[in-house]
């Protein structure tokens, strides 16, 4: 299974959820565009316990913690989607940068990278005031472009009404609910990876 992890917002929990997915699927991990430090690849590597996952180097490792197009300009490079190719892995978790409409250069966005890679999306929706709007805008853009979506992961303290309306209007399955965690450790990642693996198994029956 190859999937692209994107989100409705910056700091939505993509890296935590990518670690959970990597552990659940015993998959490899790749962050093609990284802006600033610490590197999300290192964070995921520290949270994954299995010994089979491979962690591929970034295609673009940028120095500044800002939008990739801006960080690339500071670093004197231009992000070229034609230079970004999937690693040769059957099981792969690809983590995006920010949300769908985060610019990679003056013309292209994260969603254009998703279209190029042609792999399904898992959308991370963290629950805050305004998350319904951000979730449905993201969902509408994915549907407009006919990008396949494997499901949604809700991250943060539960908000049943927000979750209900997002799920109803998206039509996508909810793969996992991750509450706000006081501490994130390999053990907690394994715990939620087991729940996710079970949920995926049920969906595939």
From TrEMBL:
What Gene3D superfamilies does the entry give?
P-loop containing nucleotide triphosphate hydrolases
Q: What class of enzyme is it?
A: ligase
Give the primary localization class: cytoplasm
Q: What SUPFAM superfamilies does the database record attribute to this sequence?
A: P-loop containing nucleoside triphosphate hydrolases
Q: Which reaction does it catalyse?
A: (7R,8S)-8-amino-7-(carboxyamino)nonanoate + ATP = (4R,5S)-dethiobiotin + ADP + phosphate + H(+); (7R,8S)-7,8-diammoniononanoate + CO2 + ATP = (4R,5S)-dethiobiotin + ADP + phosphate + 3 H(+)
Q: Which residues bind Mg(2+)?
A: 15, 40, 95
Keyword annotations for this protein, in alphabetical order, are: ATP-binding, Biotin biosynthesis, Cytoplasm, Ligase, Magnesium, Metal-binding, Nucleotide-binding
Q: Which residues are noted in the entry as ATP-binding?
A: 11-16, 40, 95-98, 179-181
Instruction: Give yes or no: UniProt keyword Ligase.
Output: yes
Q: Which Pfam families match?
A: AAA_26
**Which intervals of the chain form a coiled coil?**
none
- Intracellular or extracellular location(s): Cytoplasm
Q: Where does substrate bind?
A: 35
Named in its record, the pathway it takes part in is: Cofactor biosynthesis; biotin biosynthesis; biotin from 7,8-diaminononanoate: step 1/2
Stored InterPro entries:
DTB_synth_BioD, P-loop_NTPase
The protein's matches in CDD domains, at most eight in alphabetical order, are given as: DTBS (cd03109)
For whether the record's keyword set contains Amino-acid biosynthesis, the answer is no
Question: According to its UniProt record, which residues of this chain constitute the active site?
Answer: 31
Q: How does it assemble?
A: Homodimer.
Q: Which NCBIfam families match?
A: bioD
Q: Which family does it belong to?
A: Belongs to the dethiobiotin synthetase family.
Its job: Catalyzes a mechanistically unusual reaction, the ATP-dependent insertion of CO2 between the N7 and N8 nitrogen atoms of 7,8-diaminopelargonic acid (DAPA, also called 7,8-diammoniononanoate) to form a ureido ring.
Q: Which HAMAP family match?
A: BioD
- Descriptive protein name: ATP-dependent dethiobiotin synthetase BioD
Q: Which gene encodes it?
A: bioD
């Amino acid at each position: 299974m190859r999937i692209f992890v994107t989100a409705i917002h910056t700091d939505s929990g993509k890296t935590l959820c990518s670690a959970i997915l990597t552990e659940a699927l015993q998959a490899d991990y790749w962050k093609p565009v990284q802006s600033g430090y610490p590197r999300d690849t290192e964070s995921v590597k520290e949270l994954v316990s299995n010994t089979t996952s491979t962690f591929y180097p970034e295609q673009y490792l940028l120095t500044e913690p800002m939008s990739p197009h801006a960080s690339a300009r500071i670093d004197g490079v231009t992000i070229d989607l034609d230079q970004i190719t999937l690693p040769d892995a059957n099981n792969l978790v690809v983590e995006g940068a920010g949300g769908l409409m985060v610019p990679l250069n003056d013309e292209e966005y994260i969603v254009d990278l998703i279209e190029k890679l042609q792999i399904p999306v898992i959308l991370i929706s963290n629950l805050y005031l305004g998350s319904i709007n951000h979730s449905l805008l993201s969902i509408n853009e994915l549907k407009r472009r006919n990008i396949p979506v494997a499901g949604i992961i809700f991250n943060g303290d539960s908000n049943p009404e927000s979750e209900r309306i997002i799920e109803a209007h998206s039509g996508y399955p909810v793969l996992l609910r991750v509450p706000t965690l006081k501490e994130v450790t390999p053990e907690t990642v394994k715990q939620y990876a087991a729940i996710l693996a079970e949920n995926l198994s049920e969906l595939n029956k």
